[in-house]
Amino acid sequence: MALGLIALVDDAIADSPWEQELYRLAVPPEMEVRFASVSEAAREYAEWNADPRPAMLLTGTVRAMCDLAARVPAIRAVNLGGVHSAAGRTQRLRYLFLTPDEERALQELEARGVTITAQDVPTGAAVPLRDVLASKGAA
């Protein structure tokens, strides 16, 4: 089933028409793309969730995802896809690098009842957060 809607939640991209245009270039014209800040996404989540089209909600950062999930109690599960290497991040899986602050934020979110897994592609196995954090590298 093809996606009909992608919502990208990122405060910086929500304020940058130039970056939004770059993202739109990568999406087929029949697919709607919405850009929102975390606060806008929290207000619009119910509308997006009620949309009958297959959809995907993406966040630009782990912090944005944690902030959004904390504001929207209906979000009960999140998937960590590709989080790239950067200064201060430790490799947990071959496609997942996290800072200590991101790890703590994810643990706090999970403690509030949100299921957190990591899965890089739809056919890959979903890895529970506890296994992600126990991992010491490229799994």
Chain-wise SSE layout:
Layout: E1 5-9, H1 11-14, H2 17-25, E2 32-36, H3 38-50, E3 55-59, H4 62-71, E4 77-80, E5 90-93, E6 96-98, H5 100-111, E7 115-118, E8 127-128, H6 129-134
Parallel strand pairs: 1-2, 1-3, 4-7
Antiparallel strand pairs: 5-6, 7-8
Low-confidence stretches: none
Number of domains: 2
CATH class of the largest domain: Alpha Beta
Terminal Cα span: 29 Å
CATH fold category name of the largest domain = Fructose Permease
| CATH architecture label name of the largest domain | 3-Layer(aba) Sandwich
Largest sheet: 3 strands, parallel
How many strands? 8
**What is the chain-wise order of helices and strands?**
EHHEHEHEEEHEEH
Radius of gyration: 15 Å
* CATH homologous superfamily annotation of the largest domain: Phosphotransferase system, sorbose subfamily IIB component
The percent range for strand residues is 15-25%
Strand order of the largest sheet: 2-1-3
Helical coverage, percent range = 25-40%
Which structural class is indicated by helix and strand composition?
alpha/beta
Chain-averaged pLDDT: 92
Instruction: Count the DSSP helices.
Output: 6
Which descriptor suits the 3D outline?
Answer: globular
Structure description:
This protein has helices at residues 11-14, 17-25, 38-50, 62-71, 100-111, 129-134, and strands spanning 5-9, 32-36, 55-59, 77-80, 90-93, 96-98, 115-118, 127-128. It is of the alpha/beta class. It folds into 2 domains: 1-72, Phosphotransferase system, sorbose subfamily IIB component (Fructose Permease, 3-Layer(aba) Sandwich), CATH 3.40.35.10; 80-139, Fructose Permease (3-Layer(aba) Sandwich). The strands form 3 sheets. It has a 3-stranded parallel beta sheet with strand order 2-1-3. Strands 4-7-8 form a 3-stranded mixed beta sheet. Strands 5-6 form a two-stranded antiparallel sheet. The radius of gyration is 15 Å and the shape is globular.
